[in-house]
Amino acid sequence: MNALLDKKVEKQESNPIDIEAEIKNQLFERLGKPKGLTHMGLRNVYGNSWRITVYCEVPGDNYLGVKTEITDSFFLKVSPEGGIISSNPVIKKKY
């Protein structure tokens, strides 16, 4: 009995869903990929609710000539498989 249970656990661990990667891919499909993208902040706020923040380099008045700024931010409802169900604000093609 334990051997069967161990196989089920092993099978589940061998195919984990990378929800963060799935959310990023869907976001880029809908929004487009911004120029100057430095990173994205993904945080599971609670349950299947996520906050996504997109950071990009933009022209700045500092000595480097660029600064990192939040260019987009979304609050998402996501399915257990990582599919975007809804977003606030609505994700529109921007880039």
Highlighted features:
4-stranded antiparallel beta sheet; 95 residues; single chain; elongated
Outline, from the CA principal axes? Answer: elongated
Question: β content, as a range?
Answer: 35-45%
Order of helices and strands: HHEEEE
Please, how many helices?
A: 2
Q: What is the strand tally?
A: 4
Give the uncertain stretches in residue-range form. Answer: none
Largest sheet: 4 strands, antiparallel
The overall number of domains is 1
- Radius of gyration over alpha carbons? 18 Å
List the helices and strands and how they pair.
Blueprint (H helix, E strand, L loop, with lengths): L1 H13 L4 H13 L5 E10 L2 E11 L6 E13 L5 E5 L7
Antiparallel strand pairs: 1-2, 2-3, 3-4
What would you say this structure looks like, in words?
The protein contains two helices and four strands; from the N terminus they run ααββββ. With 95 residues, it is an alpha+beta fold. A four-stranded antiparallel beta sheet has the order 1-2-3-4.
